[in-house]
Amino acid sequence: MAWDFDTDPEYQRKLDWVAEFVRTEVEPLDLIYPNPYDRTDPEIRALMRPLQQQVKDQGLWACHLGPELGGPGYGQLELALLNEVLGTSMWAPLVFGCQAPDSGNAEILAHFGTAEQKQKYLQPLLDGEIGSCYVMTEPTGGSDPTAFRTTAVRDGDEWVINGEKWFNSCAEFATFHIVMVVTDPDAEPHLRLSMFIVPADAPGLELVRNFTVPGFSEHEGHLRFTDVRVPADHLLGAEGAGFVVAQTRLGGGRVHHAMRTVALVRKAFDMMCERAVSRPARKGVLGGFQMTQERIADSWIQMEQFRLLVLRTAWRIDQAQDYRAVRKDIAAIKVAMPTVMNDIARRALHLHGALGVSTDLPFLDMTTYAEVMAIADGPTEVHKITLAKEVLKQYAPADPVYPTGFRPVLREQARDLVARRLEREVGNL
Ligand SMILES: Cc1cc2nc3c(=O)[nH]c(=O)nc-3n(C[C@H](O)[C@H](O)[C@H](O)COP(=O)(O)OP(=O)(O)OC[C@H]3O[C@@H](n4cnc5c(N)ncnc54)[C@H](O)[C@@H]3O)c2cc1C
Predict the structure, then answer these.
(1) Interval between CA 181 and ligand 1 midpoint (Å)
(2) How far, in Å, from the CA of 137 to the mean position of ligand 1?
(3) I need a labelling partner for 127 at 20 to 30 A (CA). Which of 140, 188, 217, 390 fits?
């Protein structure tokens, strides 16, 4: 039997250290510097470096990466338990070297990058020296990569990129972008696209503007490519393999968002419970009302179900060592995440009354975050389709009129079975 819901005591000791460290040293910084992604800001750098060193001293830097890439190689399950602590803070993932979008970009550079690409882009990214951006969504459509229009055309030893992309997180602070573009418009849909590394200072690449999402301290960039030239060796993965590279990246990204969401859900839940036992109401406190109790019970059930699904998905990725083999589970947590976050944040908000809707408490940010989680990395509908298709693959067709559960037939079969048994038992008397 291998079912075990306990955390290894040695790792639990590390998690306890992380919880205290994040609470006392890291989270206060979120209130003063809400966007810590600017690595050139001297104040942010001065505050970030010593904290990162403490994490490295604890052997917790870039927890998800193998030793060959400078991490301890703990795997996704340990990362999930760590992200359950880090997810309430913008600073904490950067302090621990596992922040989006860099962690996903590092993963595909490690998977598909050449030795030169790794040295030039991956190493400084892992060292926390530079930032990166993942550039896929286009103004004319994001959910369907087969509709992308930005192109790269080969010209001698270079590729020339033209087109527009938007909602690219942290574009303003990126040293390089990983960009998905059409290289063969006539190929079959999943072979039309390739992935490129594009330096942020490439001539012709323009940051048109930044989008702001309430409650999100990072900005989403709108990028325009006008005859942007990159050397041929800036292709990441094979020509036409953009889809495969993207799936590797997005699989990890979705799971990591879900892990961090567990932390935010827990925060909303804890605040709701604190309010329930603190706020006087009639002759007792809010928690004495049955409708409050129902909210707390429903929230606890949703939170625990979601957490277990996230942890099992992480465990399955570790077993399979391949995100694609765990597509169904990843789609399921991607779908569950916004609903659980939204339901619990809204209940917590409601219990705080007027204060709950103010910007002095985090609940409205959490509900916006839930909406973003239902859209970013693909909308809920698309993931439901993936999940259902994967589930249906496990079923074989039966009679089109009478399902295998049709009781009259089952009853007939049961009667035959009982008759045979009785015949044997009576014969043996
Ligand atoms: C905060 C934030 C950060 C982001 N960061 C990045 C980033 O770093 N890099 C990047 O490339 N992109 C990023 N995105 C973009 C994100 O991935 C896209 O917004 C997403 O893929 C949806 O694309 P879209 O906005 O074009 O919506 P559309 O594709 O136009 O979809 C709109 C709606 O149509 C419906 N719909 C679409 N397809 C289907 C379908 N097949 N079946 C049923 N209904 C459907 C859904 O309701 C969907 O919400 C970010 C977005 C946000 C909000």
Answers:
(1) 17
(2) 7
(3) 217
How far does residue 314's CA lie from ligand 1's centre (Å)? 24
CA 51 to chain centre: 24
Q: 147: which DSSP letter?
A: G
pTM for the model stands at 0.94
388 lines ligand 1 (CB under 6 A): no
Where helices occur in 133-197 by DSSP H, the ranges are none
State which amino acid sits at residue 199: P
Count of alpha carbons within 13 Å of 228, Cβ hemisphere only?
Answer: 27
Parallel/antiparallel/unpaired status of strands 176-182 and 132-135: parallel
Q: What are phi and psi of 362, to 5 degrees?
A: -90, 10
Residue 17 DSSP label: H
Residue 114 has φ and ψ, to the nearest 5°, of: -80, 170
Q: Are the C-beta atoms of residues 89 and 226 closer than 8 Å to each other?
A: no
> Ligand 1 within 6 A of 378 CB?
yes
Q: Name, in order, each residue with C-beta under 8 angstroms of 145's C-beta and a sequence gap of 6 or more.
A: 136, 180, 193, 242, 243, 246
Token pair 């970013």 is found at: 376
Residue linked to tokens 């495969």? 244
Query: Which ligand 1 atom minimizes the distance to the CA of 213?
Result: 1
3-state secondary structure of 393: coil
Q: pLDDT tens string for the chain (429 positions)?
A: 778 899 999 999 999 999 999 999 999 999 999 889 888 899 999 999 999 999 999 999 988 788 877 778 888 999 999 999 999 999 999 999 999 999 899 989 988 999 999 999 999 999 888 999 999 999 998 999 888 999 999 999 999 999 999 999 999 999 999 999 999 999 998 899 999 999 999 999 999 999 999 888 889 999 999 999 999 999 999 999 999 999 888 888 899 999 999 999 999 999 999 999 999 999 899 999 999 999 999 999 999 999 999 999 999 999 998 888 999 999 999 999 999 999 999 999 999 999 999 999 999 999 999 999 999 999 999 999 999 999 999 999 999 999 999 999 999 999 999 999 999 988 777
Q: How far apart are CA 168 and CA 219, in angstroms?
A: 8
Nearest atom (ligand 1) to Cα of 133: 8
Residues 6+ apart with CB under 8 A from 57: none
Ligand 1 centre from 225 Cα, in Å? Answer: 20
